[in-house]
Write a structure and sequence with these properties.
By secondary structure, the protein is of the alpha/beta class. It has 2 domains: 208 residues, TIM Barrel (Alpha-Beta Barrel); 79 residues, no CATH class. It is 35% helix and 14% strand. A 3-stranded antiparallel beta sheet has the order 3-4-5, covered by helices on one side. A 3-stranded mixed beta sheet has the order 8-9-12, covered by helices on one side. Helix 7 links the parallel strand 6 and strand 7. Helix 14 runs antiparallel to helix 15. The longest helix has 14 residues. Bound molecules: zinc ion (ZN). The site of zinc ion has 8 residues, from loops.
Length: 359
């Protein structure tokens, strides 16, 4: 449900190689059939470290992200939660009739990690329903927090509750297209071999050296806006209208930008650098002035870049502009603008992604 039909381990692994990613979360690891699909690919020819991951929805509709060392931990977790869920073996992201605290206890019991998924999203997320971490997790600790596409580290840096919590920037991709997978990623310092156990240890220890992803304004819930017509409002105006859009009576959803500001107090804590990126496919689409990165022309240009330079992240971050220029002049100008932060953002809100133009 809710994902592309093309979601298959082999396609996902190939997409990781194109992007330049070395680690991939499986998603939906509680689902027995999805586990079976993954098992032949846990060690793979692309050399990618596969981490079993999954989401659970709790009794307040908060989504939790779980990272485990192996599928066995998810099997144990499924057993522990089965009497509190009607959808645990059948739904990729099951609903469990337990509090965040009770779920976190069980996750820790099996040796896995837990943190809020897309924490700032105005629904099905921690800060949609709770003003504090303890409000959801009680006495249980969280091992990380996933920021979500509409936030960057600065949104959480001033929230006192989060001062010791590492931030993760994950894509939550529902499709293996290169504009979706790896649109956000983490750079993590790993001591020893790249294994799921080592990686989990590094995440809890907070050895994340860089977060990368969307400009938060690109996210679809960045600003406070009507979910029907996407008109954006200030929090004051939204309150005056009782959170109903005067144009069409649609629900006005508080944006991540406003939510983070109201939760932040005091001096923001220092966080690893956050690199704002735009997927190469979207850059090519913008330069070509077409409606999708999937047009034949855009795909041809994208493929030429990958054939020439190996992977997308290198192209966006480190390939010399003079070399990029030899493949495509306009794209070189755009990547130069991105690297210099010369980007004009038109923030998203109410469920509509933001857009950008490059100077
Ligand atoms: Zn409206």
């Amino acid at each position: 449900m809710a994902v592309s039909r093309a979601m298959h381990p082999e396609k996902l692994l190939n997409a990781c190689a194109l992007k330049g990613l070395h680690v991939l979360g499986t998603g939906d690891a509680l689902h027995p059939a999805w586990q079976e699909e993954w098992k032949p690919f846990l060690s793979n020819s692309q050399g990618i470290c596969v981490i079993p991951t999954g989401e659970i929805e709790d009794d307040h509709r908060v989504h939790h992200l779980i990272l485990a060392e192996d599928f066995g931990q998810f099997d144990q977790l499924r057993d522990l939660l089965s009497q509190n869920s009607r959808s645990i073996g059948t739904n990729g992201r099951p609903h469990v009739f337990l509090s965040g605290e009770a779920i976190a206890q069980r996750v820790h019991e099996v040796g896995a990690l837990i943190g809020p998924a897309h924490a700032f999203t105005p629904w099905t997320a921690l800060f949609a329903y709770h003003d504090s971490v303890a409000g959801c997790y009680g006495k249980e600790s969280i091992n990380f927090m996933e920021l979500g596409l509409s936030a960057d580290s600065s949104y959480g840096a001033g929230i006192p509750d989060l001062s010791d919590v590492p931030f993760l920037t994950n894509s939550d991709a529902h499709s293996p297209l290169p504009e979706k997978i790896g649109r956000e990623f983490n750079k993590i310092q790993v001591s020893g071999n790249l294994t799921p156990r080592n990686l989990l240890n590094c995440i809890s220890a907070g050895t994340i050296t860089m977060n990368a992803g969307f400009f938060p304004e690109e996210g679809k819930y960045n600003r406070t806006a009507c979910v029907r017509c996407f008109t954006q409002y200030s929090v004051e105006d939204a309150g005056r209208y009782n959170w109903r859009c005067p144009a069409d009576n649609g629900l006005i959803k508080k944006g991540v930008y406003d939510r983070a500001r109201e939760l932040s107090h005091g001096t923001p804590r220092q966080r690893p650098p956050y690199l704002h990126l735009i997927p190469l496919g979207q850059i090519i689409q913008t330069i070509e002035g077409v409606s999708s990165p999937q047009t034949k022309k855009c795909r041809e240009i994208y493929n030429e870049f990958i054939t020439t330079f190996g992977n997308e992240i290198d192209i966006l971050i480190s390939t010399p502009l003079s070399e990029i220029r030899m493949v495509h002049n306009g794209v070189a100008d755009a990547i130069a603008a991105l690297r210099e932060n010369h980007v004009i953002l038109h923030p998203g809100g109410g469920g509509k992604y933001g857009t950008f133009s490059l100077l």
